[in-house]
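TL;DR need structure tokens for one chain.
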Amino acid sequence: MDTITPAQRHLNMSHIRSTNSQPETAVRSALHKLGFRFRKNDRRLAGKPDIVFPHYHAVIFVNGCFWHAHARCAKFVLSKTNTVFWQEKLTRNVVRDRTEYEMLMQDGWRVGVVWECAITGKDRGRRIRSTAEKFPSGLKRVSTNRTANSERFRCSTDR
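>> reply
TL;DR here they are.
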């Protein structure tokens, strides 16, 4: 049973942002301090990636653990109310994410994912810096043969 009224639930849900979330801005800030320059939420690309490195032909998605159904994560807890709706919605989100990653990789982009749980919690600042510092190894300059370079680049936040 829900402990808040439908009006309160609506207000809470309306305050959840799709862009410029705290984890996203924290990762962008850390990458900028490391000297990286990028675009934000490029609509021309599948999935409108959170961070786009045109120079490296790479993108980063900063995913919230709940909204993207992060498996084996303490931050992902399926709602006890309206469970069928949430299960279907989150499954659609996961399928959509995979499709968008595949489309980007087919177009020669390298795709990285940062999960919310990897950059929040105790010692948040250190975790964000550590995550940002791992990207340069995945962002090595690519050759002109983009199809040979399309892959998911790995970092400690991939699961």
